[in-house]
Amino acid sequence: MTDAEIDYEVDAEDLTLAAPREIRDDAKPSLVVDDLHITYRVFGGKKLGTATQRKDSFVRKLLNQGRSHVGSVSEVKAVKGISFVARHGESIGIVGINGSGKSTLLRAVAGLIPPTKGSVYVAGEPSLLGVNAVLMGDLSGERNIMIGGLALGMTPQEVEASFDDIVDFSGIGNFVYLPMKAYSSGMAARLRFAISASAVPDILMIDEALATGDATFRNKSTERINKIREQAGTVFLVSHSLATVEAMCSRVLWVHQGELVADGPAKEVCAQYKAFVAKSRAKS
Amino acid sequence: MTVPTQRKAPAPAASATTGAVPAPVTPSLTSDQLRHLAETHGLKQMGVRPPLREYVRNLWARRQFTAVLARSKAYARNQTNYLGQLWSLLNPALNALTYVLIFGFILNTTKGVGNHIAFIVLGTFTFRFFDQSVAAGAKSISSNMNLVRSVHFPRAVLPTSSVMSELFTALPATIVMLAFAFGSGFLPDMDSIPITWQWLLLVPAMALLWLFNIGCAFFVARWVAITPDLNNVIPFVMRLLMYGSGVIWTISTHVTNEFWLKILDYQPVAVFLYLVRSCVMDDPTIPQSPARWVWGAIWAVSFIVVGFLLFWRGEERYGRD
Ligand SMILES: Nc1ncnc2c1ncn2[C@@H]1O[C@H](COP(=O)(O)OP(=O)(O)OP(=O)(O)O)[C@@H](O)[C@H]1O
Ligand SMILES: [Mg+2]
């Protein structure tokens, strides 16, 4: 599948929401990202750039052969100098092709990967909802709710008090007592979303976590996201579905090969991105 | 204060029609302005190591998280077996039986001890607690990658809860150990193991060993997270320690060199083995020794303090692959 075949699967009726509010530029900032660079260290595998066949001397070939088995460490520059400011109450979409660095950017903002260079400043505790929604696969959903809630800084009493809410919201019913590895991906995503949203995070980052949800869940989660924004939280949404991004976000960042290439109102940036996608589809 | 606006004018409409990737956005604020903006609004910097005081406070605030994580993991460990939680008793029992069979009956490695079955049982149970704690500490970050990659909390929670979960498995094992030791007293040729008030001293002895284990877990967790290769070395270090601590043999009757005797006797693992044995066994060769208690306390405190500092100094690097 090429990037061009990114879906537009969301039905317009699914998203009968008020258009996202515009945020004025003088609202208080909740996140400041300053010249962020992230470099991954990868063990194993060939050095990037040596994958193509080249005419090398026998000795060098032998050396390279050895290097890919012993002590091969390469670097991947995933984010290369991104700066932006996000404000309270804003919901920001992030678009870009596979491997452009969207997830990496969010992880750095959540404080989960230290920047190689540059800095990230946030107000309050950010919470990241990733593609892999399972916290502890061996444990029951019930345990995962407790662990997830405590990890987010709630007290056990608070988690217990919101337990029923979380289970209700996730809609997984009695499955909450089974180990999470027995869940479908959508069920896991629903539970994770319910846990993260219950703590009312200051910054909620959703990395394709809604993609596996069904229509009911998508409606519920959109409502919850709007509630978080009303409570002055900031929401980030990474999605390959431009319809979702346009419906839920007021502002969109387009990340391409680790760089920020567009930052502006959702409509405009999405139009630009669509044109780019259409063009690369025509090429392939 | 007026804050300059950040968002630039929309990119030229040309790229909306041509489909070319626009040039990277040039930030409208300089680094200094951005930092100033962040500071005036009280934002805190992410991905940097917090000061020690704050780190300790955050860790303390997550104590319930640590305990719940530990309990859940101790429980989950045996869940995939038919016999389930029974394995937390069977495992250490089989382990001790193996050593008792070889070293207690076939080879005679424990000269001078009145009840060598109890000697070996106590040794293997105690060492196993240490060994498993270090192994769990080494894996504590990589085995919780999902958690590390999705929530932000002081990473010292992970080694601590791993060792705590070993403690939860060690507690039922201790009952088995005491039952074995007591039972061995009824075998012919074995000194009896009376139940005395000294058995209560087992509680502080295990507590000190537990602290020591957490300290060791901090060391290995940091080393393995930064240089994964070290995980391959740990089993050999453990084996070295096992043979060098008199788990299955008596140090004093086999080592004649004064210098080595001192080192082997007072190195931390041997000290803890001695403490546990002196609490349970009523053997003239293993009397209660205040000096060893002091040594045990010194080892436990120094390992946990130094280990914690070392771990904290690497804090910002643990999420990275
Ligand atoms: N754990 C990792 N170790 C090494 N390199 C990584 C790792 N995760 C991502 N990368 C690299 O970083 C770059 C950006 O990856 P990232 O996951 O941020 O992309 P993405 O925009 O989220 O893509 P997708 O749309 O597929 O989710 C890619 O080149 C990828 O190879
Ligand atoms: Mg991604």
UniProtKB/TrEMBL annotation, chain A:
One GO MF term attached to the UniProt entry: ATP binding
Family annotation (Pfam families): ABC_tran
Keyword tags: ATP-binding, Nucleotide-binding, Transport
Domain ABC transporter: 60-282
PANTHER family for the chain: TEICHOIC ACIDS EXPORT ATP-BINDING PROTEIN TAGH
Family that this chain belongs to: Belongs to the ABC transporter superfamily.
Protein's UniProt name: Teichoic acid ABC transporter ATP-binding protein
Native organism: Luteimicrobium album
Automatic annotation (TrEMBL), chain B:
Keywords noted in UniProt: Cell inner membrane, Cell membrane, Membrane, Transmembrane, Transmembrane helix, Transport
Every ABC transmembrane type-2 domain range: 83-314
Chief place where the protein resides: membrane
Top-level taxon of the source organism: Bacteria
Topology of the protein relative to the lipid bilayer: Multi-pass membrane protein
InterPro entries, sorted: ABC2_TM (IPR013525), ABC2_TM_bact-type (IPR047817)
Chain spans, region Disordered: 1-25
Transmembrane segments: 86-107, 113-130, 167-187, 199-221, 233-252, 293-312
Intracellular or extracellular location(s): Cell inner membrane; Cell membrane
Composition bias type Low complexity, residue spans: 9-25
Entry similarity comment: Belongs to the ABC-2 integral membrane protein family.
Protein name per Swiss-Prot or TrEMBL: Transport permease protein
